Every structure is written in structure tokens, then in C-alpha cells.
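User:
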Amino acid sequence: MLLNTVLHTIRDDRMESEQELMRIGVSLPDNLLTRFDEILTKRGYSSRSEGIRDAIRSYIRYYEWASEVTGERLGVISLTYNHEQHGLIDALADIQHQHLDVIQSSMHFHADEKTCLELIALHGDAKSLKEVAEGLMALKGVEHLKLTTISTIK
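Assistant: Predicted structure:
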């Protein structure tokens, strides 16, 4: 009985340190997967799975960092999007108009025939800045978005 308890405890400890791998399916555009594979090769990854795990860890760290930011902040949202995406331009404008209390200014660039870059300057409570960024990020057609903030200068 004691031996079974010891073996069970050893197995439980080992299972806690080793995480069970889960298989998932992901659909990606060919050009995105090709670019990802090129980066994996340059960085010396042994597999796509290893690269995807690393990318997810990085995404989680960024999200957790952003969640901890509080107080009055100055910020910039940089985003790129496909302006040919149906309804996207109106949705971007609607979100920005809903947050006039924190949005100070925006600048729009045409990167190419279908891609636009927008920079949005913000000032206000960190929670409000994150709400703007998350609302924009959720829109179909937004290809990249990054929120950068600093504490206000006193």
C-alpha cells in the first residue's frame, strides 16, 4: 500500500511538471504561413508547433502586461487594416467616436492600394485606452494593432 501511494505521488508530481499537449487545428492564409515558416527557419525552430507555442506565450505575456497597466496614461495605437474589408471604415470611425473622451488625434497613411496605417493618440485612464484598443482589434480586417502607453508626465 505504501509503495502504491509513493508511486502515485511521484506520477502526480511528474504530471504537474509535464504539461499534456493538446492538438488543435488552425486555418491560416497561405502568405501568413509562408512568412511564419521563414521566420521559424531563420530563428532555428525545430517545428511549427514550437514556434506557435512561443508566439502564444508572447501574446499571453503582452496581454498580462497590458492588464496590469493602470492610472492616467498617454498612449498611441498603431494599426494596419485592409480598407477593402466591407464595413470596416465605418466600424473604425464608430469606435473612435465612442471614445472622444480619450482620443486626442489620429493620423492616416496609405501603405499600398489596400492597406492603411492609422496612428491614434490617446490620453486618459489606462482602462479606457485598453477598451479602445480591444474594440479596434476585434474588427474583421484589422491586420495588426499595438497599444503603447507611458505614464503621464507630472
